[in-house]
Design a protein that fits this description.
Blueprint (H helix, E strand, L loop, with lengths): L7 E6 L3 H10 L8 E6 L7 H9 L4 E6 L11 H18 L7 E5 L5 H18 L10 H26 L6 H9 L1 H26 L4 H8 L3 H16 L1
Parallel strand pairs: 1-2, 1-3, 3-4
Helix pairs in contact: 1-4, 2-5, 3-5, 3-6, 5-7, 7-9, 8-9
The structure holds FE2/S2 (inorganic) cluster.
The site of FE2/S2 (inorganic) cluster has 13 residues, from helix 3.
């Protein structure tokens, strides 16, 4: 889209990426002015709810900057949790029809001002190619809101699943990438989250207006048999 200037919200760890961004500014390295920054004490502090709210507030991309693995300043090593959060967030976005590359996590140390500038420039270029959030996905704003609300409403459950089933620790980013692309993870995601997310979408839709199963199916691009299955599950849940 001509003249599209993406909006990016960045969550930067105080001890590394924020200092890296500061060094970038002090050294007068040039990078696109599309990013607004929120300083957090550790990348592990960035909750999925923050990411979803950033998208709901009109940001086209969300950037999380943390310390390199092994360099987190806290004994809980929050940057490992941040990696898990990002990969799970990407899967939720993807399922909802939103480009998962709109969420990006990178390690940037306090001395890597140039790296920070390069990453922001590259992320901005990527988002320009993706287009504005929603229309870039071929989705109107009403549908986008519905998809984001459906994930947000399910977050307490998703966090429980993440804590009980997906809390893994690998020593490298590649370990997380492999795990979150594995059949084992996809099976778990499908079994534990996909149906609940579909039900959450139906519930958000029905809060707005009364619709027949066929209209629900049309709105959510589901088959009528899928909608019937989810409606039966909803009725069962309300009775038990
Ligand atoms: Fe920087 Fe934890 S202190 S990621």
């Amino acid at each position: 889209m001509a003249n599209f200037k993406p909006r990016i919200l960045g969550f930067l760890c105080n001890w590394c990426s924020y200092a890296g961004a500061d060094q970038c500014g002090v050294s007068r390295y040039q990078y696109p002015p599309n990013i607004k920054v929120i300083r957090v004490m550790c990348s592990g502090r960035v909750d999925l709810a923050f990411v979803l709210r950033a998208f709901a507030n009109g940001n086209d991309g969300v950037f999380v900057g943390g310390c390199w693995l092994g360099d987190c300043h806290y004994i809980t090593e929050g940057n490992y949790d941040a990696l898990s959060m990002m990969h799970l967030g990407k899967k939720l976005l993807e399922y909802s029809g939103i480009n998962p590359d709109r969420l990006r996590l990178e390690s940037v140390s306090a001395s890597e001002g140039v790296r920070y500038a390069e990453i922001v420039a590259e992320f901005t270029d990527n988002l320009v190619e993706m287009g504005p959030l929603g229309s870039g996905e071929g989705m109107d704003q009403e549908t986008l809101k519905l998809k984001l609300d459906a994930i947000t409403n399910l977050l307490p459950y998703i966090k429980l699943v993440e804590r009980e089933k997906l809390r893994v620790r690998f020593e490298s980013r590649e370990g997380y990438e492999e795990f979150f692309a594995s059949d084992e993870l996809n099976l778990l995601f499908n079994e534990m989250i996909v149906d609940k997310l579909a039900i959450s979408q139906i519930m958000v839709l029905l809060q707005e207006k009364d619709l027949s199963p066929r209209e629900i199916a049309d709105n959510l691009h589901m088959s009528q048999s899928e909608v019937s299955k989810h409606l039966k599950a909803m009725i069962y849940l309300t009775k038990h």
